[in-house]
Amino acid sequence: MRSSAVISGVLASVLLVLVVAGWPPLLSVDRSVAEALHRSALAHPGFTHANRVLSDWVWDPWTMRALAAGATVLLWWRRERRAALWVAGTSLLAVGLQQALKALVGRERPQWTDPVDSARYAAFPSGHAMTATVTCGLLLWVLALHWREEWRGWGTLAGAAAVSVLGVGWTRVYLGVHWPSDVVEGWLLGWCCVAAAVLTYRWSERRGAAGLSPENGGGGAGSSGSRMGERR
Q1: Interatomic CA distance for residues 51 and 56, integer angstroms
Q2: Nearest to residue 47, comparing CAs of 120, 117, 114?
């Protein structure tokens, strides 16, 4: 997980620099892909409408945030307070990072004379892609801590999460409201946030377990340590 966090963070930083610098090869690829997909969107209105439903409702950031909020409430109710705080905190930090980068980079969205959809605010990174990555990643992490070993539906949910993350990125470019590199940055930053959250959670659990050990005057394994950690 540490390597994953570092690699995704480095790649996101490199892509950020290339976008800010206006690297011609990247901008050329962005433009070529966006134009090709826009032509397809105009030629297939039914498929375009389906993409709008998926993008604006099923995979909308507010839908994803509602899922994260629901997971936070459930974890809190189960007395998994640390995990609940991690899910909520990571989701909020990801939103803050996303909005800060949008404001700092200020990249314009694709402009079309015949748009099939619209979006406001800056383009880089894609909020849809980043929010879906963070939410799906956190939910899979929580499910893995609890039920991965005994639950047969794990593979189905993991597949649905992958489809959601990849699918929402596709819809944003297909609908002409993002450049491909906006989406890739959202994926990279989102995964970096999830990996960092998992790493810091494990570190906090180890620190808590050390504080509860008999050598330190704690109550040992039977104390109030995180049950999620015990199942991992």
Answers
A1: 8
A2: 117
